[in-house]
């Protein structure tokens, strides 16, 4: 594939990720695998995700909940580095299967949390960060797992997108550093990641125009749709 279709898909992925905080990797990873192979696609996506999350933080800087970021990142950052080191030891079929089921199960679970009025505390975010950070070190796409925890902490729309992006930025930076130490992030891979990441950054700015026009019910409904799509794609990847 040429760079033009990769960047166009990256722009669409960045726009989607900028609206709901995840989904960009689900769209972009198959294109990166097709273009560069699975071995190179994961570290390229790690670099691109750093830029994508950085741009979402910049767009929603004033809405970021810094206590939530600190609680989440304190466990997520070391866990992501650990996950990157053990990535080669796990069966990707089992992991895709578990994550796919989990994503879909999050749809009714999120609605149940909302109906009961349950909130995830800062301590709960720290526990979630440790588990999700470890998984993020192993696979490319764990963004949807963050969703119910940050939403249950009371964050929506711009506050959710900006806060989730800051937590993810810390994780993907840690993951990228670990890849570099392991020799999986040579200069050419970094350059490709930066090019792909530039399209994600552009998408984040486009997304702000859409997100500002959404109300909370529309935002949560879109979340449910994308959680289902992400889960179905993980299940399809496990079997096919």
Keywords:
mainly alpha, 10 helices, 240 residues
Write structural notes for this entry.
The structure is a single chain. 83% of the residues lie in helices and 0% in strands. By secondary structure, the protein is mostly helical. Helix 1 packs across helix 8 and helix 4 runs parallel beside helix 6. It has one domain. It has ten helices and no strands.
Topology:
Elements: H1 3-20, H2 24-36, H3 38-59, H4 66-85, H5 92-116, H6 122-138, H7 143-152, H8 157-181, H9 187-211, H10 216-239
Helix pairs in contact: 1-2, 1-8, 1-9, 2-3, 3-8, 3-9, 4-6, 4-8, 5-7, 5-10, 6-7, 6-8, 7-8
How would you summarize what this structure contains?
With 240 residues, this protein is mainly α. It has ten helices and no strands. The protein starts with a helix and ends with a helix.
């Amino acid at each position: 594939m040429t760079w033009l279709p990769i960047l166009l898909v990256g722009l669409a992925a960045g726009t989607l990720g900028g609206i709901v905080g995840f989904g960009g990797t689900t769209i972009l990873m198959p294109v990166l695998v097709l273009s560069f192979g699975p071995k190179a696609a994961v570290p390229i996506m790690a670099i691109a995700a750093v830029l994508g999350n950085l741009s979402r933080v910049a767009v929603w800087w004033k809405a970021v909940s810094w206590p939530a970021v600190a609680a989440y990142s304190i466990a997520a950052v070391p866990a992501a580095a650990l996950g990157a080191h053990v990535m080669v030891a796990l069966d990707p079929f089992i992991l895709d299967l578990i994550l796919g089921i989990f994503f879909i199960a999050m749809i009714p679970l999120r609605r149940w949390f909302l109906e009961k009025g349950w909130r995830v505390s800062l301590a709960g975010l720290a526990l979630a960060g440790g588990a999700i950070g470890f998984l993020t070190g192993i696979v490319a796409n764990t963004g949807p797992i963050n969703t119910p925890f940050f939403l249950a902490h009371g964050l929506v729309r711009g506050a959710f997108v900006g806060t989730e992006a800051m937590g993810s930025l810390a994780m993907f930076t840690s993951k990228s550093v670990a890849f570099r130490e392991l020799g999986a992030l040579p200069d050419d891979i970094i350059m490709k990641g930066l090019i792909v990441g530039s399209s994600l950054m552009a998408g984040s700015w486009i997304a702000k125009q859409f997100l500002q026009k959404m109300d909370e019910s529309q935002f949560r409904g879109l979340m449910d749709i994308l959680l289902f799509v992400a889960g179905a794609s993980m299940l399809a990847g496990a079997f096919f």
